[in-house]
Task: structure prediction
Amino acid sequence: MADLDLEQLIKEIEQSTASSISELEQYRVRYLGKKGKVKELFSRLKDADAEARETLGAKFNDIKYRAEAKFESLKSKLSSKKSGEENEMDLSRPGVPLPLGTRHPISIVRNQMIKIFEHIGFTVSEGPEIETDWNNFTALNIPEDHPARDMQDTFFLQTDPDILLRTHTSPQQIRVMESTAPPIRIICPGRVYRNETVSARAHCIFHQIEGLYIDESVSFTDLKQTLYYFAKEMFGEDTKTRFRPSYFPFTEPSAEMDISCLICKGEGCPVCKHSGWVEILGCGMVDPSVLENCNIDSSKYMGYAFGLGIERPAMLKYQIDDIRLFFENDIRFLEQFQSAL
Ligand code: DAH
Result:
């Protein structure tokens, strides 16, 4: 036994390396094989006297354990290195194609609308979907018990009648006017909520874009020209527009704008109820009392506002006949819309 240098053997094992499978195998044969050094150690036990056998046995077991652990660590280092090498080799292989998602049709149409208005100097201002009664109704000249509140069946949050899901994007006008000095030229895209029975033509969630322009000298002509420009850009040069007098509590005078039906080009079809026209927005000159509610001097400033739906133009553009499709998130439906926007 005197010739046994166990410390040296341990050192050898610890310092072993294997940079290939064959070197690993060499290691295994050298230390753990049938004729390997560990086996050889144990074979010597029988020559030791009984007293020494116990301590030697423990030592040999320790060496065996170290040799096995080293083997496992060399093996795993080698396999991680190997897979790294394989990845490098993969550079020449074709990649695994990842399916590209598509934009939601509502996003496509909204982005197109935003781009058109940005082009003529409007900036985007987004606001919260949970609103106060003041912003959604009262400041917009819709006091409590005003019949216009019935037109917009409201979802109230919890038991506080003051907190609600906005029924239109107009409250964002109020937020901006209360916090910004004119001139103001904004568009406010967003989701709105109304407690309506869901059908092919109506949904309890939909989208609008609010527009607001406040300055010292703004006329109804400016409003008409802006919306006229928008309609041509959005729906094509051939699109005709018409304004009809209307009523909104927050604008005076008020109007609604129709465009010639994109499906039948104004000839008359079921989509336009055979009128040749489709209504796409409400608009008007901001009522001075709304300006005053926001602490804007109505003797100095005036402006126009409009509220544009997104679903209807999107349905016209893509010839979609059921509004519910927008909210079902059926991949087969959504995959059909491709856009750079
Ligand atoms: N807020 C109105 C609605 O949801 C739409 C609207 C009409 C907005 C006229 C306006 C406007 O800014 O001037 O029905």
Remarks:
- The first strand starts at residue 123 and ends at 124.
